[in-house]
Design brief:
Elements (H helix, E strand, L loop, with lengths): L4 H23 L1 H8 L6 H25 L5 H25 L5 H25 L8 E7 L2 E10 L3 H8 L2 H7 L5 E6 L6 E5 L5 E10 L3 E6 L10 E12 L4 E11 L3 H35 L1
Antiparallel strand pairs: 1-2, 2-8, 3-4, 4-5, 5-6, 6-7, 7-8
Length: 296
């Protein structure tokens, strides 16, 4: 999403604060109970630990949103409403049950609520500036098969878009998962290129689809002994088409996972969101380059 910096900043502060409080409650519930409650009770340690666990889980959700450049206005507003609920709940607790807490306890509850309210307000104001981007990315997993796609409309002519898309060495400048792309031999159908990842890993690809000015595709040689990723098959197709006022380009990735059920589960849990972000960031970076060149 565009202009999400403010919202993501306050989400990050909220996540750090929640993590700090959560760790403290889990590690030292007895100390906290002695500070805030007038009368000790056996449930207090367990209750505070559970609250700490909840705050850590909440912080993990916030951290995931901070890392997501596609965070939506609705997601941020929901978090802000949850923060508002915490503030209102704290006020009710102090108003109806203030006599149960020490003076320090009342101050702690009020200060925490104040910080939560500040984060919520910052998130809400930041959410107002979020505008949907034109890139539409998704990853679908069915069994071991993966289908990933991103579409992006750009204000640039088809010929220019095609030139940017077929600038293979320049592909590494816009793809988060690449540091270098080199053409090994040939051009068009049958071209051989080698891609390099951020940790020095590399893999070979062969162009097996080519229609000048419209589309091309590469098959990744996943059968190679040095192929670093858990895919038995991987194919990418890049297309561009004039839409009358500009051009729309599409990237389609089809893959098949290898390994155990655990590999599939880990991909769905961890790698799927990263896959979506790589495609989204690529489309946005490409669109920026294309439109900048179109403006001259």
């Amino acid at each position: 999403m565009e202009h999400a910096t403010t919202a993501r900043t306050f989400l990050g502060l909220n996540a750090i604060f929640s993590t700090f409080i959560g760790i403290f409650l889990i590690a030292m519930p007895g100390l906290m109970a002695g500070w805030i409650f007038k009368i000790p009770a056996t449930w207090q340690d367990v209750g505070l630990r559970l609250l700490g666990i909840g705050l850590i889980a909440f912080a993990l959700v916030l951290f995931s949103l901070v890392k997501n450049k596609r965070v939506s206005k609705g997601q941020v507003v929901i978090i802000s409403l949850m923060d508002l609920g915490w503030v209102l709940g704290s006020l009710v607790v102090l108003a109806l049950g203030g006599h149960l807490f020490t003076g320090v306890g009342q101050v702690v509850i009020a200060v925490v609520a104040a910080f939560v309210g500040l984060f919520g307000a910052g998130q809400f104001l930041g959410a107002r500036a979020i505008r949907p981007t034109l890139s539409k990315a998704f990853v679908q997993v069915s069994g071991r098969k993966i289908l990933a796609r991103v579409d992006r409309a750009v204000d640039a002519p088809l010929g220019l878009v095609w030139r940017v898309m077929t600038d293979h060495p320049g592909y590494a400048d816009v793809a988060d998962n690449l540091t270098k792309v080199e053409v090994v031999e040939g051009e068009g159908l049958g071209m051989q290129r080698r891609c390099y990842g951020p940790k020095g890993e590399s893999w070979h690809e062969t162009c097996d689809i080519y229609e000048e000015g419209r589309s091309f595709g590469f098959r990744v040689h996943t059968e190679a002994d040095d192929y670093p990723y858990p895919f038995s098959e991987l194919h990418g197709t890049w297309c561009a088409e004039s839409d009358g006022t500009g051009t729309t380009f599409t990237i389609l990735i089809e893959a098949k996972l290898k390994g155990s059920v655990l590999t599939k589960w880990l991909f769905f849990l961890v790698a799927k969101p990263q896959f979506e972000n790589v495609l989204f960031n690529l489309a946005e970076a490409w669109a920026t380059r294309m439109e900048r060149q179109a403006r001259g």
